[in-house]
Design a protein that fits this description.
GO molecular function, one term: structural constituent of ribosome
Largest sheet: 4 strands, mixed
Number of domains: 3
Protein name: Small ribosomal subunit protein uS3m
Family: Belongs to the universal ribosomal protein uS3 family.
Radius of gyration: 26 Å
Shape: globular
Subcellular location: Mitochondrion
Organism: Ostreococcus tauri
Number of strands: 8
Number of helices: 10
Distance between the termini: 22 Å
Length: about 280
């Protein structure tokens, strides 16, 4: 029985919980429909942003809707972007540029003093203009916009959700830096790699390397089905590492499914991850 049924549904009474928290005796169908609408809506929004790995927890009350969305950074799914985040090696390039092109700056001048000097120079150039206050406002507009970007988009998404669901909505996004904490994130990582036509064995070895770094993971199992790498006949390839006790209900097993849209058809991905108690 542990091999055929979903491990999450089988462990709801022991160490798993529902992805929604609400109760309705007469409007049960309406509550289920609204929950599916919220999950599909946020999944499509984050898919447009660049990441499909999202988990949504919905709390419904008669007059309000509270949503928690857990998502991963798109840089974790794109190796080209991940390489750009590596630390730079120390070089003498900037030291050479400063000594050759910026000799008029004193080496003992503090940055705060230099910043005040540049601001006052810009004010002197615009002293005859009537838009001096506007100039000061636009001086730090870009920095202020970057710091409040997440809050701005969160408020905008709350307004759109409130108008779409006809209910007062509160949305709280939670960004995770490690996608090994959930099987859903790992499944989306594998599907993203399959869409980029990476070899299956290379994907399995990469996932194994990442999951080995997490000390809370005891074992995992990944199954991919379909026309893998463009073969004529569909097949199923499974990779297993470590310990996965599907027949023990007290073990913490997370399960997720994902789809990869390729030129050879839809590929199915299933992931089981067993965590330590």
């Amino acid at each position: 029985m542990g091999q055929k049924i979903s491990p999450v549904a089988l462990r709801l009474q022991t160490n798993k919980s529902f992805q929604a928290s609400w109760y309705s005796q007469k409007l049960y169908a309406e509550g289920v429909h609204k929950q599916l609408q919220v999950q599909n809506f946020l999944h499509d929004v984050f898919h447009q942003v660049g990441t499909k790995a999202t988990k949504t927890h919905v709390v419904q009350t008669p007059g309000a809707l509270k949503i928690h969305t857990f998502f991963c950074s798109p840089r974790l799914f794109d190796q080209k972007l991940a390489k750009k985040t590596m630390s730079l090696k120390p070089t003498h390039f900037f030291q050479h540029q400063r000594t050759t092109q910026w000799q008029f700056l004193s080496n003992q001048m503090h940055w705060e003093t230099l910043k005040k000097k540049l601001v006052f120079q810009s004010l002197l150039r615009n002293n005859l203009q009537k838009s001096t206050t506007l100039h000061l406002t636009n001086l730090f507009e870009q920095t202020r916009h970057k710091t409040n970007a997440l809050k701005f988009y969160a408020n905008h998404l709350e307004a759109v959700s409130q108008q779409y669901f006809k209910t007062a909505t509160q949305w709280e996004p939670v960004k995770l830096q490690e996608f090994t904490k959930s099987a859903q994130f790992v499944a989306e990582y594998v599907s993203h790699a399959l869409e980029r036509q990476k070899p299956v064995k290379q994907i399995f070895s990469g996932v194994q390397t990442l999951l080995k770094k997490d000390p809370n993971v005891e074992g995992f199992k990944i199954s991919c089905s379909g026309r893998l790498q463009g073969v004529e006949m569909a097949k199923i390839e499974t990779f297993k590492f470590g310990k996965i006790s599907l027949h023990v209900f007290t073990s913490k097993v997370d399960y997720a499914e994902a789809r990869a849209l390729t030129t050879f058809g839809i590929l199915g991905v299933k992931v089981w991850i067993c965590y330590k108690d």
